[in-house]
Structures are given as structure tokens and as C-alpha cells.
What we know:
There is one protein chain. This protein is an alpha+beta fold. Helix content is 44%, strand content 15%. It has 9 helices and 6 strands; from the N terminus they run E-E-H-H-H-E-H-E-E-H-H-E-H-H-H. The strands form 2 sheets. The protein has a 4-stranded antiparallel beta sheet. A two-stranded parallel ribbon has the order 1-5. Helix 7 runs antiparallel to helix 8.
Amino acid sequence: MSEPRFRSDIVVRLVQRVGSDAMIAAAARVSVTGADGLQGEGGNPVTDANAGLIRYLMKHRHASPFEHGQLTFYAECPIFVAREWMRHRTWSFNETSGRYRVLEPVFWVPPEGRAVVEPPAFKPSRPVLVESEQVRESVVQFCQHSYYAAWWNYQAMIADGVAREVARSVLPVGTYTSFYATVNPRNLMGFLSLRTHDASATNLSYPQAEIEDAARQMEEVFKGLFPLTYAAFVGNGRVAP
């Protein structure tokens, strides 16, 4: 019987992209230029005209042009992160299935430096935790003990011929899962506005550390592929159109 493995990282990797800043600008111009909007820019996304138009669209929340693009990511994270992510119903997801395959014994534990303690002034609406290495180490031990028990029970049921879809019920939300996630720039900006804590944001958000890790990785990809749109998003206080 394979032994549980423990990790703390969140993996996000770009699989494919469609579109650019030029396509977003062309989608806005099509009402007055027709198909010439894209060709008129020579396909070059980074121009002063495109930058000005995209800033205008962002400021005045003309949202639909920002839907003319697409990014697909591959993610590995614990189930509790995936479930937060999948609350964003404007994304498209396909996840590994515990009905059709035996899952891997990979489980999440909090890494060093991960805040785990609620301070006396803790507010559920604004959850800011504090670090305690002693408490974190005890959390790791509790997690590992639970994971070993859950994995033993899961493997025992599989060995007894119990259906995978039933046996998986004993596995905890700290179990790692993997999935593809596809989103357009508009909805990615909505995700970033909610799943990052940034002092420059007009509306501060207080996400869980692990989903913010995922969001920050996607933000770096977005920044590189849609630089004008990203700059307008940041300049607009990280408010999505």
C-alpha cells in the first residue's frame, strides 16, 4: 500500500491562450469600424491608441470587449482551494475524477511561516491570521495523523472491491486534486479583485493564503500576455469591468 505524501505548494501553469490586447480593442471598435479594427492596428496589441481605448473601457466599465480572449490553466491544489476557485461560475472547469480513477495519496500541510492562529480581534468578514510556529507544527501533526487514517480506510475499501465513488467519501478536503480552468480576461480580473489582498485596491479583499497564491501566479501570466489590459486594471484600483 502506497504511503501518504505531504506538500504545501500550489501549482498553476498556463496551457493555452487566445487573443490579446489588440483583440480587446478591436472588439470595442467593431461597432464603428467593422472588421477593420484589428487590421488597422496591424495586429500589434501594444499601441498608444489601444492603451487609451482600453483605459477608457476599464474606467467606464464597458465589460464585453474584455471577454474576447481566453486563458486555460492547469492547477494542482488541495480540494478546499479548488472548491473556493470553482465558486467562480463564469469559469469552465474539468477536474480529475475520484469516480473513474484511484486518487493519489497527496495531502496538504501548512508550510513554514503560514499564519494559522485567529487573534483576539479576529473578524470573519476580514480574516487576518497571525503566525505561531508551535501551533503550526501541531497542525501539521494533526493533519498527518488524519490523512494516514483516511488513506488507510480508502485503500482498504478499494481492496475490498468498494466502488471508487463510494470509497472516496472518507478522503479529506486537504487531498490534492488537479483540473483545467478556462477563463476570459474580464472574469479573470474579477477573480483577481476578490482573491488577492492588495493595498492599492479600491475594495480590499481578504482571501485565504492558498487561493491567493494561485491568483498571484495567474496574475503574472495575465500581466505578460495582456499588458495594456492589466495596466488599466491596476490603474482602475483593481476593479474589474
